[in-house]
Amino acid sequence: MAYYVTTPIYYVNAAPHLGHAYTTIGADILARHHRQRGEEVFFLTGTDEHGEPVAKVAEQEGVSPKELADRNAQRFLDLLPRINASNDFFIRTTDPRHEAKVQDVMQRIHDNGHTYKALYEGWYCPKCADFKTDAEIAEGHTCPIHRIPLDWESEENWFFRLSTFEEPLKRLYADNPEWVAPRTRYNEALAFINGGLNDVSLSRGKLTWGITVPWDPDHVFYVWFDALLNYYTALSFARDGEDLTSTFWPANLHIIGKDILKFHAVFWPAMLMAADLPVPQRELIHGYLLMRDSSGEETKMSKSLGNVLDPFEVMDTFGTDALRYYCFREVNFGQDGGVSTTTFGERYESELANDYGNLASRTLAMIGRYRDGVVPDVDVDPALAADFDGLVPEVCALLDNAEITQALERIWTRVRRLNRYVEEQAPWQLAKDDAKAAELDTALRSLAEGIRAVTVLLHPYIPETAAKLLEALGETELALDGAAFGARPGGGSVGELAPLFPKPQ
Ligand code: ME8
Question: Among 125, 128, 260, which is best to mutate for testing ligand 1, by the most ligand atoms less than 8 A from CB?
Fold first, then answer.
């Protein structure tokens, strides 16, 4: 089984912020989970380096677009080990291998008769790099996303015959009701299609910072055509000497934010159809992380609005796993949701440090104290087993739908169950009475096994912590087919464990 998951490729016109980290961590959680299922996974992320947004910032900073791209692509690359992303490749759209492949595919679209040249006139947002339709223009001809004035553009362009894909796109939506999730985004994209599709400009004549149109070298491709194709081109050169396209295309899942829905859910499948290529199986559209400002108002975090929460600072204080956990616990993946340092601190303390970290250290300490560090080799408690019943398939089913927050909630319900179990069993009381030795064995064994079971499932969310804890439990296997509560025997030795979520300095 092959599983291919992607993030958007991020613009290099500024440094990465928590919004970018968020999408990449979401994709990483799914990639790690699918590896645990024994699937062959390919996880792609990267940077979008051509186009007007990049050229404009480079001009303001007095550097060439390539210099700006090199500098900022490095920042996105640096973010990946910090957030512990397990991506298999990082694509940069200035890679000549990407450029050549874009020219190939676009030439095919041209040869198939889906392009023509005409005069373009319309309102254009240089930050979105997007021509706006009437419905997308805010008051005073401004961009509703960036809140800046739109430019009136008029030039000879190559066009993509998007209008001819109206019916095929409607069929795609009708035949695949799950192809865009969540449902609200499916409906939004379908409404856009049902509203009637205009042809779209696919080249720019004035710009030189882009990939040359092979059949008209005075033009470069409009950046979105170049950018979207990354998902397909990367497979042809990501692994030296190998072409992974037949293994991984079509992609299983594109994860994107709702700001770029139209490009992914309308333009992209139409482009692929025009090139006679299969469309991806699914797109998951998530909401915005919103920063709560001092007045309590929530605004989208973005480079242009200048209210950015620096993921590096957050991780310096609380650690990478805490950031990964918090983002997907606090905000229901798919919806918009507010994040703040206050709720971050609260969840760190009450959930990560107390519910989980303390549960693990108390359990290991009790096994050390009462059983010389050996997990009793007895059966697990059937009452607790009943509460874990079906957890692994349930988590798999939720993650198949990219319901990352719901899956975490189900796992955390068991973390809380284990905390209650400690209180119910009170091993420190059982230890005082020799007649209760068997009960103590069962309690300690069940706790160790319960912690192992939840930790294997938590691995995609908090990989560093999970590795430390599984090591201390003497059980490092991550495969999901051995993850069920009770699947592993007792009798192993446990080791030392430093506090998993210490008080931040
Ligand atoms: O749009 N909350 O790049 P970009 C959640 N290059 N996610 C956020 C976010 C926020 N506040 N801010 C950004 C582009 N994101 C194009 C994409 S793909 C072929 C080309 C995430 O740098 C989210 O995934 O503006 C969003 O879709 C993406 O960053 C936009 O990144």
Answer: 260
Helix axis angle, 391-400 relative to 404-425, nearest 10°? 160
Per annotation, catalytic residue among 34, 114, 128, 254: 128
Known catalytic membership, residue 125 = yes
Ligand 1 contact, 337 CB (< 6 A): no
List, in sequence order, every residue forming a beta bridge with 108; answer none if it has no partner.
none
pLDDT tens column, 357-367: 999 999 999 99
Element (H or E) spanning 124, and its range?
A: strand 115-125
Of the candidates 167, 161, 51, 165, the one whose C-alpha atom is nearest the C-alpha of residue 110 is: 161
With 0-12 CB in 10 A as exposed, 13-18 as middle and 19+ as buried, what is 344?
buried
Q: Please work out whether the CB of residue 22 comes within 6 Å of at least one atom of ligand 1.
A: yes
Cβ proximity of 117 and 161 under 8 Å: no
Count of helix runs (H) and strand runs (E) in the chain: 21, 15
Rounded mean pLDDT, 291-310: 56
Question: What is the amino acid identity at position 505?
Answer: Q
Model confidence over 3-12: pLDDT tens digits? 999 999 999 9
Burial 197-219 (b: 16+ CB within 10 A, else e): bebbbbbbbebebbbbbeeeeeb
Q: Establish whether 20 is a catalytic residue.
A: yes
Among residues 317, 219, 229, the alpha carbon closest in space to that of 274 is found at 229
Q: Indicate whether residue 48 lines ligand 1 (CB < 6 A).
A: yes
Q: Is the CB of 6 under 6 A from ligand 1?
A: no
What amino acid is encoded at 332 in this protein?
A: N
**Ligand 1 contact via 16 beta carbon (within 6 Å):** no
Longest dimension (CA), the chain: 90
Choose which residue among 6, 18, 20 to substitute to test ligand 1 binding: the one with the highest number of ligand atoms within 8 A of its C-beta: 20
CB 339 within 8 A of CB 400: no
Say how many C-beta atoms besides its own lie within 10 A of residue 276's C-beta: 10
9 Cα to the center of ligand 1, angstroms: 8
Residue 38 C-alpha to ligand 1 middle, in angstroms? 30
| Contact between residue 118 and residue 156 where contact means Cβ atoms under 8 Å apart | yes
Catalytic hit among 101, 132, 264, 303: 303
Distance of CA 171 to the CA centre of its chain: 28
Ligand 1 atom at minimal distance to the Cα of residue 47: 6
Q: Is the CB of 23 under 6 A from ligand 1?
A: yes
Single-letter residue type at 463: P
| Tens digit of each residue's pLDDT (9 = 90 or more) over 258-268 | 999 999 999 99
Torsion angle in degrees (nearest 10) through CA of 380, 385, 388, 389: 130
Q: How far apart are CA 230 and CA 9, in angstroms?
A: 8
> In this prediction, what percent of the chain has a pLDDT beyond 90?
82
Q: What is the mean pLDDT of residues 115-138?
A: 87
What is the pTM for the complete model shown?
Answer: 0.93
Model pLDDT for residues 314-358, shown as the tens digit of each residue = 788 889 999 999 999 999 999 999 888 788 889 999 999 999 999
